[in-house]
Hints:
By secondary structure, the chain is α/β, with parallel strands linked by helices. It contains 14 helices and 14 strands. The protein folds into 2 domains: about 1-230, Thiolase/Chalcone synthase (Peroxisomal Thiolase, Chain A, domain 1, 3-Layer(aba) Sandwich); about 240-390, Thiolase/Chalcone synthase (Peroxisomal Thiolase, Chain A, domain 1). It has helices at about 10-20, 55-60, 60-75, 85, 100-110, 120-125, 130-140, 155-165, 185-195, 225-230, 260-270, 290-305, 315-320, 325-340; strands at about 1-5, 25, 40, 90-95, 145-150, 175-180, 215-225, 240-245, 280, 310-315, 340-345, 365, 370-380, 385-390.
Amino acid sequence: xxxxxxxxxxxxxxxxxxxxxxxxxxxxxxxxxxxxxxxxxxxxxxxxxxxxxxxxxxxxxxxxxxxxxxxxxxxxxxxxxxxxxxxxxxxxxxxxxxxxxxxxxxxxxxxxxxxxxxxxxxxxxxxxxxxxxxxxxxxxxxxxxxxxxxxxxxxxxxxxxxxxxxxxxxxxxxxxxxxxxxxxxxxxxxxxxxxxxxxxxxxxxxxxxxxxxxxxxxxxxxxxxxxxxxxxxxxxxxxxxxxxxxxxxxxxxxxxxxxxxxxxxxxxxxxxxxxxxxxxxxxxxxxxxxxxxxxxxxxxxxxxxxxxxxxxxxxxxxxxxxxxxxxxxxxxxxxxxxxxxxxxxxxxxxxxxxxxxxxxxxxxxxxxxxxxxxxxxxxxxxxxxxxxxxxx
Length: 392
């Protein structure tokens, strides 16, 4: 995992449990033309620490972060990707927008500087599947490899697809997660026009919330059948036990309650669990006025009386909304919450909102003893994806 909270899982988890917010002034570009000034950038990232010069020229920042996260995941798993396994390993990644910084530079050259050509590597740098492709080349993996792009649910859809492929025996292992780097002027101006970005910080479920804060980062998981992991003595972090998805079939940007309800119920059904068995929820929690209320109502609809017993947090309050990578970052946060028996807080919380009347673990982490957890992702376009995890 790499995000505004750190460059590996250990650093990220330390920040999450401390409630440290990685949101601050955007420093990677001139933001004088923007109405908002803050974002959750990876600070101090040096490409040359991870790649040689020719690789840096070829790989956009979003794909670089994907490879960095995949390297950590594979090393931590201890999985030896020998040729026989390489044919039976999948790479399923999520990315909402791909190489935005490369695309922005190309547009500046073409339209502002009136250049007659753009960088010859613009296409391979901008394509959303670049992260998956470079991971496959990094590890010589020749099995199924593709990228899911379903806005903010991209990573959850990717991990869920990888989970089903491994569970159903289509592959013997998978690397799955997501990456995103949204900090380019054109893309930020597009978000500015939607009027959903906070001028200050991200305050999920707080009555004084003013909108989301964009973030960047990547996270990857290594998935394999339980019996295979046990047989080779792997350090198992958690078990994925269910995945559910749905479509609102409603408005392109305004969420419905019914879609998230269906996705959560599907994730519980796939795991063969009852609602009362869930102890922790990593919420989608974007801090927009409508989304947080709709998610609160959906959680109450699914969990009924048990909703009041749930520890719920939005870690976007710390690592920002990383769009297509959000689900992957939050999957790691959910796994660590189960392993360490600690619910990370919803940071920056100020004022109780009667319409968000759940235990959202405000500002300080809390000890929990949950056996199962879910992680929610609800995207523009009404595309919902929910993962269910079990503590090991």
